[in-house]
Target: Germin-like protein
Amino acid sequence: MENLSLFLLLLAIIMCPIATANGPDPLQDFCVADFSSSGPVIFVVFDKVNGYACLDPKLVKADHFSVGGLHLDGSTSNSLGTFVNRITVAELPGLNTLGLSNVRVNYARHGVVPPHIHPRATEILTVLKGRLRVGFVTGNPENRLITKVLGEGDVFVFPMGLVHFQQNVAEGNTTVLAFLSAANPGVITVANAVFGSNSPIGDDVLGKAFQADARTIKAFKSQF
Model:
């Protein structure tokens, strides 16, 4: 009986997918996203991919692996003073299942990318122009802020799933290029998620979480 139990345990381990940072390895040369299908596919052992369904390889073209415009500056005339040009699987179907994406961010003077999380990706960022204050916060209970001011050519990495931010501290504009370890890394902006959720989180819950009165919580919610 003990040998049988051990055998069943080993079999279960072998049959289960191995957890990885950005999903399972692709099972084919490429899997161009077929957006005409029913949407993203949840990973199931052996017969699905962690992403969109694959386009028929006979229909694949070079354009599925290429996209332009990343060199263009976007408008920073908004409340945050930033423009984020994302290249994920949504913009580049050939990224599907390959575990990679990138962004180019323009910052006006004092512009910020507010505290946010990428639930499915580690991010590595390079400053192309200007100066940028970056940082992330470690998990509970320490909640320690790891922060640094970067100059041109400096590189910084944000670990997967941790709250992080960027702030332009140059006298003029700043530009960065970043890569993320997922074709669809996701983004959760902390303030939007907490104060602008649909349906809203109760004022009493947020009041206790932020140690603030109902009037203050309502004022925050009105911004989102």
About this structure: Residues 192-222 form one domain. The radius of gyration is 21 Å. Helices lie at 2-15, 190-195, 203-210, 214-222.
